[in-house]
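Our consortium's second objective concerns turning raw sequence data into structural hypotheses that experimental partners can test. To show how far this objective has progressed, the report includes one record in full. It was chosen at random from the queue rather than selected for favorable results. The single chain below, 281 residues long, was entered without modification.
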Amino acid sequence: MRHLRLPILILILLLPVGLNATEVFAQGKNMRFAFVLLSEPRLPKAEDVVRSFSAFATKGQGVQLGKSEAKPDSEILEFDLKPNGNAFVMLLPTAVPNGEADDAVRFSLSAMGTGWKLPKHNAHLIVTCNSSGAPLESLSLLTSLLAAVVKSSPAVGIYWGPASATHDPKFFLETAQEPDISFRITLWTGVSMAREADGRLSLLSIGMEQLNLPDLLLVAPKSAGSSALEAFFNLLTYVANRGKPLPEGDTVGRSATEKLRVQYVPSPMDEKTKVWRVEIK
């Protein structure tokens, strides 16, 4: 079973914490989750997570130990989050199956041009966050908590399932210290790079559905390189802050004078899904 299809399983596994089925499934619609890949099967100390959280918290965010009484041999930690959330950290003493997390390295910005590869992992933590806030607020809250967990664990990678991206812990922690969405969105989305038939660079985002937004397909000149990546994430940040998709035929640009037309086309990964396409001349 792929981890991208695990929300129901995660909810069921949370039942031993003390929530009944009705409470758990009611929270499911607001649940965000990611995986911390470990070199050894060890649950972090709850107090270390709380202590580390302050280094990554954005304005108005806070964490404290959950109200449920933790058993000494428990493999689950519970936290209450501000604003409007709670979270669980659950230890699974096995690697993510089928090499899924290893394959997802190629979609992470942290691996592009660095040669970083995921070290062997023998266990992983499932970090879930239930929040009634808006998508941006919920993802930012999960990011802050996740960074605190990574800081407190023998982490070798962070697999952000909805983005199909596995990140280098150093990159993740450095990025999570920045509260601005323009930084954090590089953790929430994967990037698929390809070449058009004429040799132009093609960049496709993965994971914008977490914000209830379509993914972006950016086509740029052959030699655009880092400038194309910068434009790519600037456009994603723009629509994330906007909170709704751009209309067909609207224009965007890297300056006040540039007018790049927005088109909706089938996704290169799934022809049944529409993405917004922008072409840089």
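The partners drew two points from this record. The chain has a mean pLDDT of 88. Residues 3-188 form one domain. Both points have been shared with the crystallography group to help prioritize constructs.
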